[in-house]
Amino acid sequence: xxxxxxxxxxxxxAPVPRRLFGSFVEHMGRCVYTGIYEPGHPKADADGLRxxxxxxxxxxxxxxxxxxxxxxxxxxxxxxxxxxxxxxxRRLDRAWRSIETNxxxxxxxxxxxxxxxxxxxxxxxxxxxGIQEACDILEYANHPGGTKYSDLRxxxxxxxxxxxxLWCLGNEMDGPWQVGHKTAAEYGRLAAETARAMRxxxxxxxxxxxGSSNSRMPTFGEWERVVLEETYDQVDYISAHAYYQEHxxxxxxxxxxxxxxxxxxxxxxxxxxxxxxxxxxxxIDISFDEWNVWYQSRHRESAIAKGESEWEVAxxxxxxxxxxxDAVVVGTLLNSxxxxxxxxxxxxxxxxxxxxxxxxxxxxGPAWKQTIAHxxxxxxxxxxxxxxxxxxxxxxxxxxxxxxxxxxxxxxxxDAENGxxxxxxxxxxxxxxxxxxxxxxxxxxxxxxxxxxxxTAEGQDRHTTNDEQHPERVSxxxxxxxxxxxxxxxxxxxxxxxxVVQLG
Length: 504
Ligand code: AHR
Known about the structure:
Blueprint: E1 2-6, E2 12-15, E3 23-24, H1 51-60, E4 64-67, E5 91-93, E6 98-100, H2 106-116, E7 119-123, H3 131-142, H4 148-155, E8 166-169, H5 184-201, E9 206-209, H6 222-231, E10 237-244, H7 250-254, H8 257-278, E11 285-293, H9 296-300, H10 303-306, E12 312-313, H11 324-339, E13 344-349, E14 359-361, E15 367-369, H12 373-382, E16 386-388, E17 391-394, E18 396-399, E19 403-406, E20 408-415, E21 420-427, E22 434-439, E23 448-454, E24 477-478, E25 483-485, E26 488-493, E27 497-503
Parallel strand pairs: 1-22, 3-4, 4-7, 6-12, 7-8, 8-9, 9-10, 10-11, 11-13
Antiparallel strand pairs: 1-17, 2-16, 5-6, 14-15, 16-20, 18-19, 20-21, 21-27, 22-26, 23-24, 23-27, 25-26
Helix pairs in contact: 3-4, 3-5, 5-6, 6-8, 8-11, 11-12
The chain binds alpha-L-arabinofuranose.
């Protein structure tokens, strides 16, 4: 296939929102226990944080990390996870049919986030709990001292407040699977009143109302409308969640970022309609705070999902191993988020370690990057300045779900301060290389500063993954042959590949 991209420094969408490159740590499976935290592991520090995992997290550099759930949060007692560890109770986690030891809680997470150099983002329980508990945890986290919960934090060894800015008002409350699931009207009222009370405790916080769990929910659209009618003045963001998997047509799977595009555009349209009707001034942005590839059909067959497993501490739950195809799809999902960075200003890839993870780690053993970590890390590192309005004219292919779809998918940024154009490109063609021309007139003289690609290497196919024995089998390699002349860059993307090119 062939594609022609046109970019211009005057045609930009918005500044790159730094919080677009977030991730998610849930008390689920082995994300916390034997993921980021494993006392007794040879690489654990004095607090039980795995430093090998921390090192990899620092390389990935998620700018914000959502915690502690997910479905888990809808039955969570945050008070169980603070104070002397030996006094913390064990509880049944109904969401993931596991035993929660509470050895790791808010204080440990705040310490881990600081060590990882990331911004913490908290979710509160609006499934089984409500306004008072939300205000209590906020007081514990952010109030300087001299009150019951702020003094409790100080007594627990944290004199300084955690200063957490971003708070999610519950999780996936539209989902019948959620403990404490609600109708849009029930949830909207509770979220509005919780938000109002939380802002009385700390007016500087930013609040996320729950949107839809995916774009196929029967309430999609109407849920956002009703929730925003109730909460518009009280919240800053509406959330979106989306997971994609390959069914029987790889071409369809490779095109799933089209669903993300439409999802985002529909939520923006709904939020703006509520804005117009209510004569509101501000805009509501989207917090796309769970997104990834997830082989959900495999999970549905598991003993945990069927309620047939023993209750265990940190069982293995949805430890999907990601392939080259999955990495290309993740690259296109990042493109979709970046293209909509004027309205999607927070996003969290789900999840960070082991559970549908960017990273994998073994108990007592090593940690490594999955294939999907590479596009995530590169876009987080290299997207800077302004998001470019990349005009794409590409050969297309037919898909069952999305109709005609571009074979070449792209996004890009312009960092005027450092004179750097960054392009993120995917070739969805599974058999043929793509020839891409990029019109770059208007940027002055450009040279290739960096060009790397993720694609199948010799002896690999599109299903190749990284694993404990081969942690770097799939990674980036130099993309040769990128040329710039007469206001045009030319490059060739291998079949089924994801690439980053920087010109400056
Ligand atoms: O990330 C895994 C789960 O997916 C989360 O707990 C839930 O919010 C979503 O359904």
